[in-house]
Amino acid sequence: MPAGQHSPIDTVVFDLDGTLVDSVYQHVVAWMGAFRDVGLQVSGSDVHRCIGMGGDRLVAQVAGEAAEWAVGDDVRRAHDSHFRDLMSQVHETRGASDLLSRLASTHRLVLASSGSQEVTEALLSTVDAAGSLTVVLSGTEVAHSKPAPDLIQAAMHAVDAERAIVVGDSVWDAQAAQACGVPTIGLLCGGIDEASLRGAGAGSVFAHPADLLAQLGRSPLSTGQPALNGS
Questions:
Q1: pLDDT tens-digit profile of 176-202?
Q2: Per-residue pLDDT tens for 31-90?
Q3: Rounded to 5°, angle at Cα 41 from 38 and 43
Q4: What CATH class does 24-89 carry?
Q5: What is the reported pLDDT for 116?
Q6: Residue 51: closest CA among 201, 186, 177, 192
Q7: Domain covering 11-23+90-223 assigned CATH 3.30.565.10 in the classification
Q8: 3-state secondary structure the chain
Q9: Which pTM does this prediction carry?
C-alpha cells in the first residue's frame, strides 16, 4: 500500500447510550434519584459527565471511594430501578437506524455498551437494528467497563477486526478506544461538547448519527483516514 494511504475500516464499534439511543438524561435523573435514596447529594453535572462509564466506576467517580465501599451496590440497584421507570421516554437518536442500515452493507457493526445486559437489550429494542449488528456486548461480559479498553478489545476480537473505529458520545468511549489504538468518531447528541471529545481523543466530531450519515463520504468511515476536522 502506498505511503500515507490507509487500509479501509472494516469494523465499527458503536456505543449505545447517547450514541444510538437518546437516554443520557434519563440516566442522569436515575442516578440522581439513586444517590438521594441512600442519603447522598451529588451534582447533576458531575453525573452527566460520567454517563458512558460503567456503573462499577461511576459511584466512586461522582461521590468518592468511601461512598462506593459503603453503598455502591445499593446505588447501582436503585439506579436500575429508577431507570426502568424512565425507559418508556427513551427513543433512538436522530438517524441512528438509518446509519446502521447504511453501514451494515459495508462494515461489520458491533455494539459495545457499558450497561448491563438487561438494560442494553431493552434500550436496543428502541432502534431498528435487526440484521445490522453482528455482535452485541454489554458491560456484564467484561471485567472492566469503559474507560478501560476491555469492551473495545472484546468487540474487535469477536469479529476478528483488522481495522476498527469507535463511534461514541462520551469521553469514556474515546479514552477506551485510544487505549486500544483505535480512532474515534465523536457525536454531540449525548451532551458532551466537541472540545472535550477531541481532548479525549476523538479525531472527528459530528452532531448525531444523521449528520454522520449525511457526511459519510468525508468521514473516516469512507476515507480510511484516522482523523478529520469534523463538523
A1: 999 999 999 999 999 999 999 999 999
A2: 999 999 999 999 999 999 999 999 999 999 999 999 999 999 999 999 999 999 999 999
A3: 135
A4: mainly alpha
A5: 87
A6: 192
A7: no
A8: CCCCCCCCCCEEEECCECCCECCHHHHHHHHHHHHHHCCCCCCHHHHHHHECECHHHHHHHHHCHHHHHHHHHHHHHHHHHHHHHHHHHCCECCCHHHHHHHHCCCCEEEEECCCCHHHHHHHHCCCCCCCCCCEEECHHHCCCCCCCCHHHHHHHHHCCCCCEEEEECCHHHHHHHHHCCCCEEEEHHHCCCHHHHHHHCEEEEECCHHHHHHCHHHCHHHHCCCCCCCC
A9: 0.92
Gap between the Cα atoms of 202 and 185, Å rounded: 6
* Domain boundaries defined on the chain: 11-23+90-223, 24-89
Identify the residue whose cell numbers are 447529594: 41
Query: What percentage of the chain carries pLDDT values higher than 90?
Result: 85
Residue with cell string 466506576? 57
For residue 108, the one-letter residue type is: R
Cell of 67: 461512598
Measured from the Cβ of residue 194, the count of other Cβ atoms closer than 10 Å reads: 15
